[in-house]
Design goal:
A hairpin with a 2-residue loop joins strand 7 and strand 8. The protein is elongated. The protein has a domain of about 80 residues: Sandwich (Immunoglobulin-like), CATH 2.60.40.790. By secondary structure, the protein is mainly β. The strands form 2 sheets. It has a 4-stranded mixed sheet, with no helix packed on it. It has a 4-stranded antiparallel sheet with strand order 2-3-8-7, with no helix packed on it. The mean pLDDT is about 80. It has no helices and 8 strands.
Length: about 130
Amino acid sequence: MADNTGITLKERTEPAPIEQTRGGQFFTPRVDIFETDRELLLCADLPGVRPEDVDLQYERGELHVHGRVQPRNHAGSFVLNEFENGDFYRAFSIHESIDNTKIQAECKNGVLTVHLPKAEAARPRQIAVKGA
């Protein structure tokens, strides 16, 4: 049997923790993304967020969703308080076959719906097959 007493094991280094670049508390909204022949459709739950408090940006294949929750002011004191204060933030890598000039979004009843239309060149097309 070989003598391994002279071999030293390299120390294992743990991965560095993720650096936070945004101050405050952020929640990750739940999202559904659907794909059709014409578009990607993103639906995100943003309870308590008004349409004017949504910041939606698409740049170089990345879609950033930031929903600001306005502070709630209630008369009296809480009997039960389960809602935490904080905004919503999420980012997605989206294939660049999206036509970014035609992106549309609406926010209604706490649900953000984003229409990401595919560029004409990226859409599937039907090819006719002829007989001989």
